[in-house]
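Ticket #4471: complex job returned nothing on first submit. Input attached below:
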Amino acid sequence: MSVDTESRRRRLEPDARRGQILACAVRLFGARPYADVSTTDVAREAGVARGLINHYFGTKKQLYLEVVRVMVTVPGVAVERLPAGDLRTRVDASVTWFLDVVSRHRDSWLAAVTAGGMGHDADVARVLTEAEEVAADSVLVAVGLADVTVRRAELRAMIRAYGGLATATAREWLQRGALDRDQVHLLLTATLLTIVEQVYPAVVGPAGAAQAGGAGSGRCTAIGTVSSRAQS
Amino acid sequence: MSVDTESRRRRLEPDARRGQILACAVRLFGARPYADVSTTDVAREAGVARGLINHYFGTKKQLYLEVVRVMVTVPGVAVERLPAGDLRTRVDASVTWFLDVVSRHRDSWLAAVTAGGMGHDADVARVLTEAEEVAADSVLVAVGLADVTVRRAELRAMIRAYGGLATATAREWLQRGALDRDQVHLLLTATLLTIVEQVYPAVVGPAGAAQAGGAGSGRCTAIGTVSSRAQS
DNA sequence: AGGAATTGTTGACACGCCGCCAACAGGGCG
DNA sequence: CGCCCTGTTGGCGGCGTGTCAACAATTCCT
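Support reply: We reran it on our side without changes. The output follows.
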């Protein structure tokens, strides 16, 4: 355990060093609350002078922002090839995919969703919101409603809200163990079907037409359409 | 704006002083993230020496704990008298009640749910969990499933998860304005009905019996029963 | 190869915040 | 009035954070 097992002062390329520090920060912030992690801790973990953290990330809060961004971005690898079938089939596949991803990245995912953010910081909220947006889009293409334009804003809002249910339900499974995977699957499938088959049509239907129906009062016949779009 | 508009050093009873400081802390922590609020700020806001905060609350984190407790407790005033009718009627009334409460305490409620907690602190998580528990119980009695014992743990878990949906949906309404009240009402009513009428029966049904069905394999006939229990 | 230029990296300084504690003073009691 | 009880204060020591000039590991040039 001599001092210079690795030369005590090695020069790395900016990206490499930045990435190394960020990785350590992710580990620490994922295990302890914001205020309990000092930049000194991060520096020690990375075997680096504390000042270097400020050099690369500016302030502690900016570092935390990067950490949150990484945490919420990792799980969203990409929407795998999704089967073409009727709505029920696609919803089922989507939920299965979600549960796979969530259980695979279990630890980091739990850390991410639990890290709602140190109180409510505007920037953190922005990052989280963007992540929700991406997640909602994934669900839309997976279910085959990506090209719907009728009440798109409301539809997306409902899907975002559904994301809240998915998160809470998955936590009941992975964190509490109060539900098993099959039960979670059943719950998420049934509720998503309800939203898409009942709630959304009702919103776009007669009630919606009386409120602001301008672009089109067409029924939601597009629900059966499977989007051929892939995700970046 | 003279210094001694109020005698600069007034003696209050412990409860009064504690309450005053706590109120100021709630206001400040409700407006800015944890790390951005110093005990000095709270002290200045309360017109009090900083040391007094430590005297009453011990540490800054303990003060924050109290703040979170207040925030999540305020909205849960009590479950009003709920009408006895069929399931759909009671669900409808419950959702209406929820939306009333949420829109009434709008600001404090938003602050509370957004304040997920500074990262993930164990104690903060405990307070939040207890609040979820209480909320879930409220829903159970309101819907008339308070006395169900069959798969009680799973049922409660599903209701807790539904709380995540309710929160997210209400935020889409109050914070984003992406949904209006009627749409939120529709969504929450339909999903809760789905969970109670479809998901829960399916869980307690044949699939459940094969897993651990011991106490009773009886169907969910208790769903129609209205609980006569009131809440504290 | 040797020296200069480049730039990743360090250590220390100043400032602010937090927890603690001895001293101070408001208000009731004999 | 003077005493005691206790709410309240102010300052001390320690720690965490942001900044900056100096340092040294590589690279490039001659």
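Residues 54 and 60 of chain B are 7 Å apart (CA to CA). Closing as resolved unless it happens again.
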